[in-house]
Each structure stands twice: as structure tokens, then as C-alpha cells.
Amino acid sequence: MTLSIEKRTHKPPRILIYGPPKVGKSTFGSLAPNPVFIQTEDGLDAIEAPAFPLAESFTQVLQFLGELATETHDFKTLVVDSTDWLERLIHAQVAKENNVKSIEGIGYGRGYLMALDHWKQYIDCINYLRDNKDMMIIQIAHTHIKRFDNPETDSYDRYQIKMHEKASAMIMEHSDIILFANHLVGVKKEQEGFSKRARAVGSGDRVLFSQERPAFVAGNRFGLPEEIPFDRNGAYWNVIASHVPYFNNKGE
Description:
alpha/beta, 10 strands, 7 helices, two-stranded antiparallel ribbon, globular
């Protein structure tokens, strides 16, 4: 009997990068190998990169994904900017399909569950591009600060992806690298009368966090350094490439 074992090939990574505004998330995508952007928000004016027209509906996003799947091109990276604005398009699509003004009009939270079917359709499309068109996937997201109920400790605030909880969980599940981008911030204690007051201080340096901490979610499958300098010349891509087998195979 012959075992049905195939030689494994390394696929391009699926990267989710999220963080506060203006930290450099779109620039991260523009410095990836031969990128093309699907825009769900209008924010690429200062960045020179190939991009589809601003998507005004979820149907249009699927159209752009279909063109990448069927047309001949040499793009190596798809950048979706951003997933939280893509969620708005998905919610509008669900509302339209149910003849209501907004997803909230469906009631009992059923609209958000319906939206997960559209998210699955989208994820199937980007996974197809990775598996069949050899494209790396970068998804950009914004953050908000929400209370996190940790069953092992008291509740605390943490940065979270600015999306519905079930949708963000689905996006993270289908990501090989989750990066939290932020400025480095320290705390300095100053004497104020008879007590000391903590004051936040920062140098302006930025960092990519690749491992989870209480303040945020992060993680990866490739043993990336816990902190990667998020400089403006894109040297972080050398760090990522040195740890991800796909790039080693490609010689990139």
C-alpha cells in the first residue's frame, strides 16, 4: 500500500496588521512585494501604489477579487485597506438583502450572523488568490479600546480590532501573522506636591508587535521577533522575509 503523501510547498503568508490611525499601516502594505490595493476607504492619496477604484459596495469588492483571480497580472501582494471599512460594505449588503435601512433593523443580532456568510465568501476569495495565484495577503484594520473580560483575571482595557467580535475572530483565524503596530510609549513619574503623577512619554519610534500581550492581540506561525522596529524605510520586510519560509524559497 502506498501512502498518499504529497510534498508540501510553502504558501504566501496572510498578514493582518492593525493599529491606531497614521501609524503607517498602509505604507507597510505599499512596501510589500509588487502590491495592489483594494480600497474600502479613501486614504491612499499620499501613497503611490497600484489600486482598484474605491469600492462602494461588497459586490464591487468581489468583482475586484474576481479580476485578480481570472486575469493575467504580475501582482504578488493583495492589500485590503481596510477590513473594518469592508465590514461597513458587508453590513450594507446584508441590510439591502433584507430590505431594511441598516443591519440593526434585522433584530436579535441575526444580521451580524448573516454577515458571517459574506465574510466566509470574502475569505474564500483571498485564500484562492493565495493558493492559486501565489499572492501574499495583507489586511489592514483600525483599533478601538474595549474592556476585555479575562476569565483568569480582573477585566481590563485592551486594543481590539474595530469590527464585530465574530467577524474579527474569523479574520484572525485565517491569518498567519497578526501584527499590532503602535508608537513606543513609556511612563515617567513626576513629583507633584506630596505625590507622584505618571506621565506618558514617547520618542516617536514605532514598533510592530508579533506576540500577544495583555494590551493587544498579536501572534504568528514563524517565530518572528517579539518586537520589530517599524521604521520608515521598510527594513522590517527583511526581518519578516528571513523568518517566513515562502520568501526563502522565492529568494526574496
